[in-house]
Amino acid sequence: MEKVTAELPSRRAAPLRTAAFRRYMTASLISATGSAMAPLALAYSVIDQGGGTRALGVVLATNTVPIVVFLLVGGVLADRVSRSRLLFLGNLLAATAQGALAATVATGHATTASIAVCGFVSGTAVAFTVPAAHGAVAQIVPADQLQQANALLRLPDNAVKVLGPALGGVVVAVSGPAWALAWDALTFAVAAVLLLGLRLDAPVAVASALSDLRKGWAGFWSRTWLWTYTAAGTVLVAAWLAGFQLLGPVVAAERYAGARDWGLVQGAFAAGLLAGTVVCLRWRPYRLLAVAVVACLPLAGPLLALGYGLPLPWVLLATLLAGIALDVSVVAWTSAFQQHVPKGELGRMSAFNGVGERLAIPLGYLLTALAAGVWDNRTVLVACAALVVAAAVLNLCVRDVYRINALRN
Q: What would the pLDDT profile of 390-401 be if each residue is shown by its tens digit?
């Protein structure tokens, strides 16, 4: 395969004309076919072996802790070694973890502890792939094509996620979660091989890793728009995940038709993500960061709908709208980040942002699990929705949010 260098392709060429981008997009699509089923399969792996809200909270928190712990290491490495090699190793590690989890679930030996251990390994893999992914896309695609490239990357992924959760719900309901987890492991393995073939050049590193980390922190703190967005995300992401991913399956099991209806909810969310991607392909907002923040507000909708026990169609509608808004937010934020951070710092800035946004997630899962034992699910879900709204509104009060805009020729 032709080696990809730091030299960017012609600005007139669309992202899909670049062979490396097509390979990266294919790997992402294949991995998405398994990842679309994984959250539901993981939740019901815990529920099927007798675990409740607290056990699921422990598992989800254990998956997040290594991301927080190792993400800075992954960020430094992403600015020092080949990003394609990091992506290969991360996906291979995730394939191993999911394969082991599928085997324990299939043989009936799964426990909360064993599921948590596999989740810890998967989280470690994420810590090394996320910073490398941000830098890899910016290394392959010109700056003025990044929004289009980010939207294109999410288009097939979100298309798979429309049917994936619903199909996963049927698979889990009929044959149990092991098959869905095994498929996830296989897709990670195939993606790993494809990503290794990118052969991206390693960034030029002239200082020590510790010096890079210190400079990275100074650069992160000097960008007010970056650390304030990250601080708001610390609260918002934790509240959203604790309400939707943790309490959502539990509420579906108690008030709705369990895995089947939760699969429909996940499918509605994925359909919204797909629709949001289509919006991003046609709409190129100038105020990228402001759009990213405002688009977080609809995430409160599904939490309120589930909390008040609305009929399933209303839950599906609220989840659909949240998915549309979230995808617009993700594409706008990713494009703003990649355009306004130098390529040599993308790994570390991505790591600091990722650590910040994930820092409260384990605590959020654990506190939500404990709160569910004291208050009813409605009270906890409404509280999570209020935190989502408050974090977004406060972030909109930051002046620099309106200064990080799209770079155009």
A: 999 999 999 999
Do 45 and 104 meet the contact criterion of CB atoms below 8 Å apart?
Answer: no
Tokens of 192: 């790993």
| pTM assigned to the model | 0.69
Question: Could you tell me if 230 and 363 are in contact, meaning their C-beta atoms sit under 8 angstroms apart?
Answer: no
Q: What is the architecture of the domain spanning 18-402? A: Up-down Bundle (1.20)
Task: Give the C-alpha separation, 27 to 20, whole Å.
Answer: 11
CA atoms within 13 A on the CB side of 201: 15
CB-count burial class (<10 Å; 0-12, 13-18, 19+) for 195? buried
45-75 pLDDT tens trace: 777 776 666 777 777 778 777 887 888 888 8
Closest CA to 233 of 329, 161, 324, 154: 329
Percent share of the chain, pLDDT over 70: 91
Longest Cα–Cα distance in the chain: 59
**CA atoms of 396 and 228, how far apart (whole Å):** 10
Tokens of 76: 């430094």
Which residue shows structure tokens 């490398």? 132
